[in-house]
Protein 1
Amino acid sequence: MKSKLNIGLIGAGRIGKVHGETIAFRVPEASLIAVTDPDAATAQAVAQRCGIPRVCATADEIFADKSIDAVLICSSTNTHADLAIQAALAGKHIFCEKPIDHTLEKIDLALETVTRHKVKMQVGFNRRFDANFARVREAIVSGEIGTPHLIHIISRDPGPPPISYVKVSGGMFLDMTIHDFDMARFLIGDEVTEVYASAGVRVDPEIGKAGDVDTAVILLRFANGVIGTIDNCRQAPYGYDQRVEVLGSKGSIATENVYPNRALVSTAESVRRDLPLNFFMERYLDSFEKELRAFVEAVLADKPTPVTAADGRVPVVMALAAKKSYLEGRPVKLSEVAAEASLETVSR
Amino acid sequence: MKSKLNIGLIGAGRIGKVHGETIAFRVPEASLIAVTDPDAATAQAVAQRCGIPRVCATADEIFADKSIDAVLICSSTNTHADLAIQAALAGKHIFCEKPIDHTLEKIDLALETVTRHKVKMQVGFNRRFDANFARVREAIVSGEIGTPHLIHIISRDPGPPPISYVKVSGGMFLDMTIHDFDMARFLIGDEVTEVYASAGVRVDPEIGKAGDVDTAVILLRFANGVIGTIDNCRQAPYGYDQRVEVLGSKGSIATENVYPNRALVSTAESVRRDLPLNFFMERYLDSFEKELRAFVEAVLADKPTPVTAADGRVPVVMALAAKKSYLEGRPVKLSEVAAEASLETVSR
Amino acid sequence: MKSKLNIGLIGAGRIGKVHGETIAFRVPEASLIAVTDPDAATAQAVAQRCGIPRVCATADEIFADKSIDAVLICSSTNTHADLAIQAALAGKHIFCEKPIDHTLEKIDLALETVTRHKVKMQVGFNRRFDANFARVREAIVSGEIGTPHLIHIISRDPGPPPISYVKVSGGMFLDMTIHDFDMARFLIGDEVTEVYASAGVRVDPEIGKAGDVDTAVILLRFANGVIGTIDNCRQAPYGYDQRVEVLGSKGSIATENVYPNRALVSTAESVRRDLPLNFFMERYLDSFEKELRAFVEAVLADKPTPVTAADGRVPVVMALAAKKSYLEGRPVKLSEVAAEASLETVSR
Amino acid sequence: MKSKLNIGLIGAGRIGKVHGETIAFRVPEASLIAVTDPDAATAQAVAQRCGIPRVCATADEIFADKSIDAVLICSSTNTHADLAIQAALAGKHIFCEKPIDHTLEKIDLALETVTRHKVKMQVGFNRRFDANFARVREAIVSGEIGTPHLIHIISRDPGPPPISYVKVSGGMFLDMTIHDFDMARFLIGDEVTEVYASAGVRVDPEIGKAGDVDTAVILLRFANGVIGTIDNCRQAPYGYDQRVEVLGSKGSIATENVYPNRALVSTAESVRRDLPLNFFMERYLDSFEKELRAFVEAVLADKPTPVTAADGRVPVVMALAAKKSYLEGRPVKLSEVAAEASLETVSR
């Protein structure tokens, strides 16, 4: 077992910078060897901040560097699958931001390549590492709440992204709900077989003109009979709203939002708290660190990654099914979208 | 305007006794004149407890009593519609427990008779009078949370009723969800146009054998575009679970359960509360008083009742649609179950 | 054992009306036979509201009525002790509002008379019957939190009473803290031996001019070594604040305030609740009913009352000691104010 | 203004390691140049972990190193004052763990030297940087709760330290309450003039035999009339309990404990949370980072440190007064312990 993992960072934008800093400052078992970004200045800035010795003009240089063991793919979504394939061909282990791609064809090609070349791949479903959701999973695994019957996931953004982003996002189900699809199957530990999506444009008519929705409830049916809902809205005026509740045969577990402090102010108007942590960078900061630690540890110890490539594929199937359900106004089985045989079981 | 309302109590079982005591001890503007029950001893006991001067052998005697202004119909469900019709024919105002009936034919006949004979009718959707749900309604009416987008209703019983009851209950949608159907349209102030029910047998296989379900999520679509869910389970191990959450354009409002005390115990094991008030008699005690006060006041002041006969009909339509949706595995429009013309708007 | 207790109501002001309605409408085991009040119209109004057959010009008429078993003394404080003495002489059982008197001399005379004439006496420390404080007591008695070490009582009014009232109130310690002194010894189940009062005028300088304080912390030392604090303020801008916390060897128990509803509103400004129930009539409504039920039951069953005459005396001793402590700026032992021999143990 | 601060770390034990890692991994504006510890292996381990180039045999070597701008004094308490004096003589800026010393003589000598040699000094009252307490301070400064009237500080450890530690700790007031004394004056922004300490041995008789107490309530009187309490116990069975509440003329602010997650589990037994973060390393982790950032920033920008040397002195005066109060059973003015002239005002 190697004692230290050499990493190349592909993409130095918002999430790339976060991952770079995490590896540089908080994961002593890994070293950043090289960084690349379409914007050279961006790559240079992250290199300086994180003490990365080498700035590469292209990802190819990173793949060619024999000293690099693994790559973090933090580039734009449409490049994820291609880069993952190239990384696999170069024998690099892969940490890839979600989603792997918006089409199953490219995802399947990437997964096949990864499998064939026996590299490890972890997909960036960081919320699995959040202390709150991890606690819910623990309650289910340990039997603390018995056999799960119902699950409700609330996932609302503080405000909608720019319309320019909405247009290339792949739609709310692929862009936003995908995290919740992953959360649903991670928590319940079983696969969803059918979805029914009820959705609309409530927040901004421009989103509707762009062919997308901004508000939705997706009803899930799991193979084991559990029924679930996902509540999505592009705008929660009070901030980022991320909660889950599971009812089981012995009890329930529900998580509240996370706040910047635990102060309660009582005045002649009300008894109040400050607003919850406002967006994912604050709310999920710890989980970004934990997912990278887990990736580094998995590669070094030659263990399975905690969020496999297959785990990156299923939520895309779910999103495509949700989209079809919304457009056709009826429940849609996942097998209508992807051959059931290719739906692997949840890996944990 | 009369200063005091003379009331006849029909049915002196569990809910009849509660309503009798409320009128006797807490509503000075009304007097209980007579009581009847198929079981004479039951009628006699309530008469003694509540100081009711006359015990009648049948409801007919109550209808024939010219001194009686109004009746409380607290008998078994299958008699509600017939008794309401007889009461209307006798010119008595009617407070009727929910549901009016399990069939639209009998409900429509009752409503027609009530309308023709110009008596007032109020249906026992007591939860509208609960301080928590009333506060949610207020937040919506006042604009405190803006335009509603999403509503979630959680409604779980502490444990399932006896199988003998399940068999005559009309099914969970008509027996249990009916309160939540009323709550949904009461809070949002608009009609549901389509439902999709996902349900199963999770708690007790005997319930399944009796042809019913015990766990369900019903997805609602309102005419105004609001999307809603109702979460029902016949068994919440921690007790009676009754909550609602509404997300609007300016904010959200969510109610928690009600507890017997506000004590927090911290030990080496956990930081904990006692369980919530365990069932509807405790949880909704205040609402039973408020609904009867409202009924007495409406009759005395010749004002509309706060929960009309029409309000009693729509939730039955919703329940029938939910049942159809569950059986056919597809979203069902309410217009498939009842002619749209007969779906009156919410009265409040 | 008599099956029904005949009661005379002495004083039909605010608290007299509450107690009258409770007996009339909620305690079937008792009947109101007569009422008196210095203001005849007040007495008449309560008689009509509560169906009391007889309005007496004076308390003497009530004492002379052989059909009356017990009296509720709800008159002004300065008459409590004299009326209790007269009631005892007439053989009536006594429910007396707190405090019995502001001087130990009159209290001791009343207690002696009550004891000699073997009538029961209960003092109106209603908060013992509040579900929250009762739960704290239960946690201590049951050993749920082990041996108590520390107790903190928070007791703040929404706003100060009129200055005219302050002037005749006997001072904050005798008027307001007296409830908390009772609560401290009730919860801990032991006697306080020493108090140290730190106090000031923070809310209204007029209160200071009237020779009183409006803000105080009283440090308590119990015989068993428990240390306690009472936090009093005449003005909590957010309303009536009534909480307690006890730390024991196995854990702690803390009560929160009681709110009119359990709704949480989240907007762009804050996550908030409505204000707590605003004053004692709302906050302690249930406890008023429970204390009278307990009194009626104790007399009918010839059991000790749950708050004895002695329980009415000790908090006055504590208040006098607190006042002395404040004036002299030093800890004061209760034995400096009253002979220790006369400090009876807590009765429960 | 220098762009980077060179730091020497004196003492590499528990807190030294925390501060070392913070500087190494989270404060890019500072560099660790050297480390020393009486135990060479300890120093070596921290040097390796934090990438510190030089391990010194003694603090003298650090003071002699011209490249070092500032020192972190993390050694045992009895060495703090002497090291601070030496550092000042060597012209090094000082971050010193609390308390500076247990005697005013040595503290005053250290402060005088620091002042004379014009080096900056910050004392390690890290809790001021905790998000919760900072929020309380903000509420007071901003006027959100008006003029403060009352403050309550709850500060309880999960369990007592070893008796060997108790014996050299200087006693609970100097060892544990000292943080709360600082918090009281920091939050209120004014000086305490008098304390009254009520204390006892409740947790472990061995602590009593060692001449110390384990449970106490200290009543504070501020110059501006605010009344406060500090509640200390060496053992809270449910874990580390760190809360504060302030009542002001316009409202109150209260902080709750911090929990490892925001999950609520409801079962047939209770509605419960996991225990709060168990001790200061978890609870105050963020504050350790913030205080060092503030120190580095203050030195680099030549601004006053946020917790001055004088701020390190006053809590010791308060602790000595509390001890005297406890021993003599009476309120003690701080001026009895230290000449009032030397009580500087709060620096912030």
Protein 2
Amino acid sequence: MKTTPPSKQSVVGRVLGLVAMVAMVAIGCGRAVAAPVPAPGEPPAPANAVERLIGSIRGQNAAYEKLTRLCDDIGHRISGSAALESAVEWAAATMRADGLENVRTEPVVVRRWIRGAESARLVEPRPLDLVMLGLGNSVGTPPEGITAEVVLARTAAELDALGDRVRGRIVLFDNPMPSFDAKRGTGYGQTVGFRLRGPRLAAERGAVAVLIRSVTAHSLSTPHTGVTLYGDTKVRIPGAALTVEHAAYLARLIQAGQKVVVHLKMAARDAGEVPSANVVGEIRGREHPEEIVVIGAHLDSWDVGQGAHDDGAGVVMAMDAAAALRRLDLRPRRTIRVVLWTNEENGGAGAEQYVADHRAELDRHIAALESDMGGFRPRGFGLDLQDAAAERAAVEKLRTWTKPLAKHFPGRWPVLEPGMAGADVGPLVEKGVPGMLLLVDESKYFDYHHSPADTLDKVEPAALTEATAAMAAMAWVLAESKERLTPMGASAPRSPGTP
Amino acid sequence: MKTTPPSKQSVVGRVLGLVAMVAMVAIGCGRAVAAPVPAPGEPPAPANAVERLIGSIRGQNAAYEKLTRLCDDIGHRISGSAALESAVEWAAATMRADGLENVRTEPVVVRRWIRGAESARLVEPRPLDLVMLGLGNSVGTPPEGITAEVVLARTAAELDALGDRVRGRIVLFDNPMPSFDAKRGTGYGQTVGFRLRGPRLAAERGAVAVLIRSVTAHSLSTPHTGVTLYGDTKVRIPGAALTVEHAAYLARLIQAGQKVVVHLKMAARDAGEVPSANVVGEIRGREHPEEIVVIGAHLDSWDVGQGAHDDGAGVVMAMDAAAALRRLDLRPRRTIRVVLWTNEENGGAGAEQYVADHRAELDRHIAALESDMGGFRPRGFGLDLQDAAAERAAVEKLRTWTKPLAKHFPGRWPVLEPGMAGADVGPLVEKGVPGMLLLVDESKYFDYHHSPADTLDKVEPAALTEATAAMAAMAWVLAESKERLTPMGASAPRSPGTP
């Protein structure tokens, strides 16, 4: 996953949304859907459906087997790569083989970024090859590379304090990520800022390139990439992540008063627009096939490792949750739609295209649940709605609906965290669809995230199975319950009438 | 550190040794030393000397500051490198500046091994650059590299079962190292065999090269090097370590029935004999300056990372233990000699040369205590003597002598483990000197060991300080106690009379 700005509307927006909702309910102008008419001959789901679903997923190793194929036969799969197109084909073929319905690829135009050859070398005070990965979407250096003195900033205030000393220099942003803490969480959000905005901030002050400390709390000489955002900045300078070890080393040298010079060489380039696709498959609902519960993840990955936790795990969870329903011949009241988005890591074009392609049925999207925190033990769900009151009401419903499930999962399951969703459901949330995120034990996620260490051996099969069961159980609850998660209109977009 | 074969003599040898000792004691032919004559005007050490010693080490950050210089100003330092010679100069100059006596470099001829450019690439079933490090002392490949199918062996039995399928192939030894376990220890000893002997074993069966899984339980795409031993095998084939991730990946492909082909290219070569040196400095004893307690570590490292835990930490512990005695103007009854051996990692020439240079005074070596398990929290000491009865008696003495120290260290300190010493004191143990090893919390040592991740940031200053205090306290106890650790003759070499 990547960091997304909170998709919450402002307080003013919330109030307007509430007013709009009340108005709509008052005048009966919500986007109506057809009244529930049970399909003739379609029997109701068995009372123990969710138990059978969880049992079937636990009785097989199917998600892990899918993940093995994705990781070992295809490997990492950045937007625009042949590997991603192989993954698209594989996912569609596998969904068809698993008996999903309406399996299709929905074209998406993505920008292709190519890393190319890259290196960073310490020139002064002594020669040393630095372990690095260019940041995603970074521009390259001139062919001969950039050689410049390195200045150190651990905070934005330190960058400001450097003043004119940034000009013509390489800025090293060395802000350590704290270790995972059960109360404070991962520390990723508070640390990733310089990866996202460091090159932009430094360019505005006249720097020629940026190095960051890899965004991770634990390194064994492990570089971590991830997207950088230039926004509308005019001068784009290259950015690369050093390992924690090498960033800390350079910082120590600079703090000890030594002159540090680095030679950075990156052939990174934007290779323009290329075709890609979201992959979609369904279990059609027996009563309200037109009402849709989306479960999904992103199929693309960074161009290192195997994209096992990020987000191969989410991909196979959603695929296997649907496959299990077919294995058991279970059909919920509403449609469960698996969506595997393309281009989450460096563009988000897949998520945007999904919204554009399905705008006519967005008000019939009950919820969109993604997994993008890795294939770890599940602990609950995040829920993000535009409207705070509707969000509170929905959390209460989920609390009630998931009570019968709690006995199937250990601990105080599930945690329900309001205001949490992921990058791929963000554009849906903007349009009023309740966004959800599978919450897992994320204590190790950022050790692997965006690095060559995000490989199949890091995924514990039993944990992936549990996460798959949790996603499947929640999908069933959302698709089967008599009541919708949000009342008609509650999940309407911010400005009623906007498509 | 590297693994050393147990230096214990056989049961027969033990019995003979015991007989010899009894005989020597009976006929009074032990190697006599001058009777203790207090130097005129040299006052006895204060009763609270060891408390002051520990206090001084805890009150400063001096060991860590030394380690910072060694890691950041010099860096990794393989035998024969300019960096190692810089380290020799730095260590001698620092010892002199700290006021140690008789500081000198003792010449050692070492073999220089040069890694050169190296790479491994998966050719079939799909192209992928593999993360690797050639094994230390490995021969290179032909300039064009070696391209061959890979066969898998996780055990020696599997290698045998491959029979003729090894011929002309690359053997992948994929034996996982178990995670650290407080009872069973690190699992290094049971795993390192294929690094040490894999190329030899495979060559004898007609293989053209060897790949091993890096000897570590935890990897974040981290390759680990280490020496391989050809012994007297006639055909030498190259050996390299893959990351755990890539070794496991290749193993999965092979187990899934896929044909795996790798292209291995290594320019490694033996560059012949070059001069190096052990670095020695002393705190001369006030009563028995001719009796010597050695404390030390190895100054060389592998050619990756910074050699921070292996064995920069041990180097600065020994240096700072002696420096603290000078800071306090404390002089023990016997001489404490700091020895920084060269060439531990890929030859052991420094340890052998020390024994040759000092053979005339080996019977006046009270003990030789090394640290080579990293700069972690100390937990006790290993003790290794040729003679089992003498070892038991010495452990009992240590138990009594260290009782007053226990209150200065947390937990049930110290653990005393018979039969444990390290590689550099091995040749001394063979000559009858009691060998000792500082035992530490080794739970993370092999995560870093021989890898690019063995860097200063992995060393916790407070832990290094405690380890330094433990080494200093034990050195003091050995050098100050009225009684010797072993009676005259008990630590004589296996065959009395052999030089």
Protein 3
Amino acid sequence: MADPVARRNETAPLEASNKDLQTIKAERTMIGAELLMETAAERGVEVCFANPGTTEMPMVEALDGAPKIRPILGLFEGVCTGAADGYGRMAEKPAMALLHLGPGLANGLCNLHNARRAHTPMLVVVGEHATWHRPYDPPLAMDIEALAGTLNGWRRTTSRAQNLGVDVSDALAAARRGQVATLIVPFDLQTKPVVAKPAPEAPSPSKTVDEQAIANAARLLKRGKKAVIILGGRSLSREGQMKAACIKAACGCDLIAETFPARMERGVGMPHIDRVPYVPAVAQNLLDSYEAVVLAGAPAPVTFFGYKDTPPSLLSAAQEVVALGEGPDALAELGRLAEALGTPSAPPKELLTRAGEIPTPTGALTRDKVCALLAAMQPEGAVVMDEGNTTSQSYHYFATLAKPFTLLTLTGGAIGQGAPCATGAAVACPSRKVIDFQADGSALYTVQALWTQAKEKLDVVTLICSNQSYDILKFEASQLGTRQLGPTVKRLTDLSGVDWVKLAEGLGVPSVAVATAEELSSELSQALAEKGPRLIEMELC
Amino acid sequence: MADPVARRNETAPLEASNKDLQTIKAERTMIGAELLMETAAERGVEVCFANPGTTEMPMVEALDGAPKIRPILGLFEGVCTGAADGYGRMAEKPAMALLHLGPGLANGLCNLHNARRAHTPMLVVVGEHATWHRPYDPPLAMDIEALAGTLNGWRRTTSRAQNLGVDVSDALAAARRGQVATLIVPFDLQTKPVVAKPAPEAPSPSKTVDEQAIANAARLLKRGKKAVIILGGRSLSREGQMKAACIKAACGCDLIAETFPARMERGVGMPHIDRVPYVPAVAQNLLDSYEAVVLAGAPAPVTFFGYKDTPPSLLSAAQEVVALGEGPDALAELGRLAEALGTPSAPPKELLTRAGEIPTPTGALTRDKVCALLAAMQPEGAVVMDEGNTTSQSYHYFATLAKPFTLLTLTGGAIGQGAPCATGAAVACPSRKVIDFQADGSALYTVQALWTQAKEKLDVVTLICSNQSYDILKFEASQLGTRQLGPTVKRLTDLSGVDWVKLAEGLGVPSVAVATAEELSSELSQALAEKGPRLIEMELC
């Protein structure tokens, strides 16, 4: 009879990789997983955000032999990948996210998407079924390569155990170019004996500074047309913004930041730089006032969604546009542009924001009061993760008066990034206060991050904007022309019934709810004075 | 200068689709989204588990005009897809899961993977950016087709608004064949005017009963060799198990169920059918005792992971194997096999399990005590979702003595299925008590499901197996040959610090913790007597 059923052949020997792991270790022979972890440690990986499973177990065990890498557990993969994103943005080097098979990668994919849009350096390691097991399509089998492919970054499935050193070295070199690098490692290759030799350092990729684009940009800015430089990526570092301010001083152009920067230094003493507005008609009006546009580390601005009356591109065919690169060389390119323009070496003081008083709000909490209070109270050197969505709009106005700090934003629009990203930022910067300015609906996507903050005693204050609603959807519905919300829209945007104090305490984070500006001021003051995670539910009216 | 930057052409008119939605509706012209929802309602869709965003807003609004479809919000997409899976298993027809762009699909992918392995009928509708917006690569853009492709099911991106009726009709026909059907709908096609004509009913696919395989299986079973039928899918319905018991009566073969059935009727009065053991050596020993194997709706059994000493396939080349189909026709095929064997029309009573006493446990809670208590106390007609992992092992032994009930299990190994699946089962079966027997680590993946249970007042009792550990990983490490857990394994399997009572109450579900069998008995008794969601944290020693 026909027999389409896969069965084992009794005579085929199992592979050498099935040799007892303890025996291999007793012989002090290195196995593939150890080569991978030792190479990663040698290449500077210091943290592994992990939610591993059986197919990653040899790599987990190998972490015992790589004590330079700190393993940190996340109770959901989106926490691990978001934390690796936050870490990468702040440390400016890759963390490892260690994930279990296709499902683990799928659960972590949204925050990898955000990291991809942020050009965050990150190494993702995914265990795959053993090469001799995968063809049997076991229950957890999934197309891992296809999932990794959606990230448009470096990816490879290891084909030989001995390659694991080179593979992880190549992955880290690719990650350092500002991308998510995904290395897929079959289980049996992790356990195979290998020769413990160091991988050759992956060659540093050549700089991609585009001299022609820089010359074009310099010519454009010198021509005296009304011009704006849209800054993004590494151009929004302190150094980048100072260089941009020097260019402004020399050419009289305006400066503006991309709408959702991965990382932007802000506060008193920094150049005054607004962001491209989120609301498309407002953004288009603003940008249409320029005859010339230079993109410095930012993509060409487009609307977030497709709206009637506003075309997707916020730049028009009538404008002259020069695009410098978006990658990790954006800062170098901005520097070359400043040189080409012969700008001063430091910006004039009048281009930098000066200290000013933020009025102290009182009474029932509104969005604007929260924004003002936070900007007024946040300490120097704070890292503020903004996933406040509809609530945090005016924060960016007040934040110019805040003490110098670092702003992180939601780069890829996939909500649920704030708490994980704040978690990773706190791991990268243990001496800085991290504040997660956090919309409630978004926070619920990856609420498990609070547990990691508690477990690792991370210095994160989470400010929950508790409006119990997907307000952004109501806003978007109005943008789309809906004048009155129907019952289904109301029903599907109603998040009422969440008690954030209980929820966060259930995950180990001390919490409190506040309803007035006075209460928020008192509780935030206390949370900022102490070390360790805290959550404040801000009941907005 | 060269200009690689995409910009709008001021002279190109915006599409007709940008006509004001209110105007279109005022004219009482139907739009694409309305055609989609009305067709779905006509074709029997009664529930939409949704976490939509801007690109799905016209479809959300169209639900107002399709009152037969009940919209239910999930606060994370994995809740929506898992709920649609639970609904599909119990209702035996597709629910709709409505998701936002690539990130929404990515977040829901793991429970779609589980649904795919369960052959659950399900319709997934994903909004995509407008066709004229997508080429600009806005922040949320992701390769949705690639994500859907990992599910190996029906998928289509709608190309014309007028096709939306036919597209959703085709998707539903495909879903009813036991798969996840994914329809991707660009935003602009949702808002375009269409003619409101009913889609032709998609032709019923022809039955795929394989008469040759049935004849082969009949011949094999009649030959008197030691034989087993491995039952899976629809063969584990009440009718399927009864037919299988008739075959057993006629041929003397044994019966066994696949390890992780999507849905299996169980309890007193059902044939006694064990499951293929999870532990590979035990499974192999058992299956090796048979000379002949018939697969009835089940895939050929393979080990869950690749282990030393146990090859992937649990069937050997020495065995004769006949595979009937795995799809929705499994029940029909089993019936044809019974006919071919001329079996009695009802199984003899001695093949059916009889009522018996389950000893009442006392004292500190252990795994086995929990399993015994649940089996003893669960009411007739209960739906029990088992994602108890290491805790629920012996439940399947005691469950043969339980009152007749329906068992659902984790089919694809992607944890975080229990609470969402129980949620969907409760929507499908409002008059039955749903019990989610739930490992704590797995529950944390999709804990947001509790909120939906509270919001929709669903009759679900969640029993949290609180061992504060990924015990399954410790077990798997031992299977892989690790004799002593290293510090990193210990650290990455330690979930301590979760207070389930606070966590669940934070999401609106009344909760209590118990530490002894007496307490569990008392609290479970009360939870079973009342309607509505409850959670009991079982502190295991």
